[in-house]
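Hi C.,

You asked whether I'd gotten around to modeling the 152-residue construct. I have! Everything is below, sequence then structure, no commentary in between.
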Amino acid sequence: MHPGRRSNVHLQHSQTYHWRSLMMNLEPPMPPSDQTKQNPEPKSNRPKWEVEDTHPELVEEILKALRTVIDPEIGLDIIALGLIRNIQVTDEGANVVMILTTPFCPYGPALLEMARQKVEQVVGKPTTIELGTEIWDRSMMEDDAMAMWGLY
């Protein structure tokens, strides 16, 4: 394999593994189960947001808006990655707690600002964004996103 070239790797018994699953020392992706085919809604591993209790009517719009914020290095949206840890909406405004996939993410400032703008557009109130202290790991991802990454 040439440096910088991504391809599948063929091992004995005629099995093909994606290069990323080999690099991460993981099993090859499993085909989706029949239950996944019947239920297209991705399983979320995110914590419950405060806005779900205080303003449940906003949750779907917020989710839809935040799904348009894509991490350009990974190619997945910030909801699928599980980066939004809490959203609180009060009479004064909204506050979003977000984490990054790595502490020195080069796109971090842009992702934080895009998320802030998207929530502000939905709630129609001044919105602040706070960088959370949790360390991101792949268990925070939606199950469908993990499957797309070849992590199942």
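If it helps when you're writing up: Residues 1-30 form one domain.

Thanks,
B.
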